[in-house]
């Protein structure tokens, strides 16, 4: 098991960049419709940025729901990794540094496969482009608390993705099953053909849905784009996360830190385990980083 960051802090003097997940990591509580950062976390982030350390926030959320959370930190120039790496954004210039869309035919074939296996009523589909959310009406009604009035209804899912509408993250929602149960079922019983490994990447980060990205795309992919842009080596990066969609990011970073409340799969691959998000777990480590710079 990875050592706790509270007991034996390692050397952090080499750190030149910070990346962190939001929900369950920087954000307190388990409310995916809101949430906030504590003053201690905000102060830790600002202190490092003032020392020249760039900060990236990485989430499965689209930019429109990330920005209000990112703004809580009051940073001068945070970087945004949204849709699990599907969109990399400079929050100040609004430049889209990179955008990774799922192949249209992969979207169509995946929808056809899962709908055929489960039936049309049990599996609900939605697609995120970063600027708009497109879904079947049943999806919107099931997740009205999250989708609300921002969605565009698609009556024929064949046209969820087309030449005019790219999808950076596809959501697969089961009417009854939680996300982890659906994820492992898809892995073992539905998406078993080796072809899927060359078509899509899928994971989960909430209790609700499985999240699909373009093949090879995850938070780590986006972070590589950023470290290359900022002239930072992966070994100089520290990253924080709590759910399976954070695993590649923590493995990519020279120092990967799992939250105390993290999914076991994240703790298994982390270099360090810190306190829970509700106990300022990120700030605990960042304060140690600051002291050693």
TrEMBL record:
Gene3D superfamilies from the UniProt entry: 3.30.1240.10, HAD superfamily/HAD-like
One Gene Ontology term of the molecular function aspect: phosphatase activity
A Pfam match: Hydrolase_3
InterPro entries: Cof, HAD-like_sf, HAD-SF_hydro_IIB, HAD_sf
Coiled coil stretches, renumbered: none
Gene Ontology cellular component list: cytosol
Annotated protein name in UniProt: HAD superfamily hydrolase
Species this chain originates from: Mucor circinelloides f. circinelloides (strain 1006PhL) (Mucormycosis agent)
């Amino acid at each position: 098991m990875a050592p706790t960051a509270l007991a034996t802090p390692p050397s952090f003097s080499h750190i030149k960049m910070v990346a962190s997940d939001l929900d369950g990591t920087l954000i307190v509580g388990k409310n995916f419709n809101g949430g906030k950062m504590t003053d201690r976390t905000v102060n830790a982030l600002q202190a490092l940025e003032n020392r020249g350390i760039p900060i990236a926030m990485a989430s499965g959320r689209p930019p429109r729901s990330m920005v209000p959370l990112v703004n809580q930190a009051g940073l001068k120039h945070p970087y945004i990794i949204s849709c699990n790496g599907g969109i990399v954004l400079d929050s100040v210039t609004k430049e889209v540094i990179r955008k990774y869309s799922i192949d249209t035919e992969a979207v169509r074939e995946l929808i056809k496969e899962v709908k055929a296996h489960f039936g049309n009523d049990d599996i609900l589909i939605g697609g995120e482009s970063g600027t708009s959310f497109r879904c079947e009406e049943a999806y919107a009604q099931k997740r009205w608390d999250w989708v609300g009035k921002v969605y565009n209804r698609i009556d024929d899912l064949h046209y969820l993705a087309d030449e005019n509408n790219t999808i950076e993250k596809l959501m697969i929602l089961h009417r009854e099953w939680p996300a982890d149960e659906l994820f492992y079922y898809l892995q073992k019983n539905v998406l078993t053909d080796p072809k899927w490994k060359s078509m899509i990447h899928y994971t989960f980060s909430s209790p609700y849905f499985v999240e699909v990205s373009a093949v090879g795309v995850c938070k780590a992919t986006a972070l590589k784009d950023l470290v290359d842009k900022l002239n930072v080596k992966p070994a100089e990066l520290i990253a924080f996360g709590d759910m399976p969609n954070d695993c590649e990011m923590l493995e990519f970073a020279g120092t990967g830190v799992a939250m105390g409340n993290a999914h076991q799969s994240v703790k298994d691959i982390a270099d360090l385990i810190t306190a829970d998000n509700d106990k300022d777990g990120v700030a605990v480590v960042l304060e140690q980083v600051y002291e050693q710079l």
